[in-house]
Design goal:
CATH superfamily: Gcn5-related N-acetyltransferase (GNAT)
Largest sheet: 8 strands, mixed
Order of helices and strands: EEHHHEEEHEHEE
Strand content: 25-35%
Low-confidence stretches: none
Oligomer: single chain
Distance between the termini: 22 Å
CATH architecture: 3-Layer(aba) Sandwich
Helix content: 25-40%
Strand order of the largest sheet: 1-2-3-4-5-6-8-7
Number of strands: 8
Length: 180
Amino acid sequence: MPLTFPGFMETDRLRLRPPEAADAECLFAAYTKDADVARYMVWRPHTSLEETRDFVSRCIAQWKAGSAFSYILSMKEDGQFIGMLEACPRGHIVNIGYLLARNHWGQGLMVEAIQALTTYALGQAGIFRVEATCNVDNRSSARVLEKSGFLLEGRLARHTVLPNISDQPRDCFIYAACRP
């Protein structure tokens, strides 16, 4: 049976839910056009709302297909969109990716979201590992993973092209949280 993720999760400060077509404007305003947010991403900052609409459409289609589960992160207090967290199940492994709007960096919010998603994933039958990679120069992302309980497992040479930095594949760290 394929792994599914809940349509809604909550943490102390956050709500996590699947994206909807109407979210594109808020995402564009919050972070998809921000070069600092996109620096270590595999995509370039969006230059138009239409790019963000296309992205949201792909997220919705992947959710329906069960190939990836993207969550919009918003603050419980005021509903403000602050980022995204994605889970991609691959057999007994769930790979995650994440981003956070710049004005919410350094507050422990992504740690909170990753811990909730990881706890859910590792509680599912057949899932034994949640993993993530980050560029070796992205110390902030590495700290988020470490604070989320992930362990550094190694360095992957020439692993990921980050178009905002270089057109050459760059080294990444791989982190994981595993079920005992």
